[in-house]
Amino acid sequence: MFGRNLKVTLLRVVVWAVLAVVGYKLSVVHVRVDGISMLPTCPDQAVFWVNRLAYLRHQPQRGDVVAIRFVAADDSISRLEPPHVMLLKRIIGLPGETVAFVKGQVLINGEILDEPYETLGCDWNRPPVTLGPDQYYVVGDNRSMPWQDHTFGVRKRNLIVGKARL
To answer: From residue 21, how far is each of 15, 28, 89, 142 by CA, in Å?
Structure first.
């Protein structure tokens, strides 16, 4: 069971254990939801695992729920948070697209976006925003809240940590 040399076997076990822990820490992070901006998809205080490796082979897609590093350098952010905070948001706009809210409907390049996950109703009106080549438009699912109480808007690709496993 232990092989001929107990010291070599124990060294192998320790090396494999360290590699497993380091690999886990590099590939997965857990995020706790604090607030109701992602209802009904993500309840307040729920914990979700985020796959940091999800976008190594392809770019984020519309509809993905992602963890985003919070950066307080954007005018659409309504409150300041510590730099270690991550937000769970849904991607609705992809690079190069124009995103607007008209009477609660999301318009992508002038076309209404079908959002079956958005069930709480919305009355937002926001002017069109055209995304750059490395920008995504993210927003929470609970748009029954006033837009002033939401953290949403344009985020650069490098701020997307990974895809949440729901």
So the answer is: 10, 11, 28, 36
Q: How far apart are CA 159 and CA 154, in angstroms?
A: 11
pTM of the model: 0.82
Residue 4 is classified by DSSP as S
CA distance 139 to 104: 13
What is the DSSP-derived secondary structure letter of residue 26? H
| Length in residues, the chain | 166
Indicate the DSSP class of residue 15. Answer: H
Residue 39's nearest CA partner among 155, 119, 99, 112 is 119
Tens of pLDDT along the chain (166 residues)? 567 888 888 888 899 999 998 888 888 988 889 889 898 899 999 999 999 999 999 999 999 999 998 765 444 444 444 556 789 999 999 999 999 999 999 999 999 999 988 888 889 999 999 999 999 999 999 988 888 888 899 999 999 999 998 8
Neighbour order of strands in the sheet with 160-165: 28-32, 47-51, 160-165, 65-69, 86-93, 135-139, 153-156
Structure tokens of 56?
């190594």
- CA 4/CA 58 separation, integer angstroms: 46
